[in-house]
Amino acid sequence: MHASIAFSAVLAFIATAVSAAPASFAATDCNPSYDVASSTPCFTACNVVAGQEWVPGWTMDSTSALFIPSLTLMCTKTAPEYRSFMTKAGTCMAQCTADDPELFNTEFAGACAWWSTHKNDTCSA
Ligand SMILES: *[C@@H]1O[C@H](CO)[C@@H](O)[C@H](O)[C@H]1NC(C)=O
User: Fold this and answer.
1) Rounded to the nearest whole angstrom, what is the distance from the C-alpha of residue 68 to the centroid of ligand 1?
2) DSSP characters for 63-82?
């Protein structure tokens, strides 16, 4: 069948293209307009761990299709899970004693400001 042969060829091409891409180049680039500086690895790890409960795969990787769902959890203050998420993340962040909390406050404010105008975006990749 021509259709299935062509489809296999496309898959093979994509597999080749992906494996040939440099490691720093993601296969998808959702949210190219996101330009907020990340805080620290310790703060980010706390959010990643806390977020999994509500958004499996929770990420601050703006190139990911899960980025907007992740920010929706972090930025929707009226959602029932918001308080639980922030409590869990905040309790963890208190252990990041070497890091200035202001760095996360700045990232949080910037990320949620970006999210408020991009929350309905879909990843075109
Ligand atoms: C996102 O979609 C909702 C529901 O359609 C709408 O009420 C809201 O204004 C939209 N927000 C933005 C930033 O486009």
Assistant:
1) 13
2) TSTTHHHHHHHHH-TTSHHH
Q: Mutation test of ligand 1: which of 78, 114, 119 has the most ligand atoms closer than 8 Å to its C-beta?
A: 119
List, for residues 18-69, the tens digit of each pLDDT value: 333 444 444 568 999 999 999 999 999 999 999 999 999 999 999 999 999 9
Contact 107, 37 (CB under 8 A): yes
State if residue 122 touches ligand 1 by the CB under 6 angstroms criterion. Answer: no
pTM: predicted TM-score of the whole model, two decimal places: 0.77
Helix 101-118 / helix 67-75 crossing angle, nearest 10 deg: 110
The CA distance from 42 to 92, in Å, is 9
* Type of residue at 41: P
CA dihedral over 43, 58, 110, 25, signed as positive or negative: positive
Annotated domain spans of the chain:
2-15+32-118
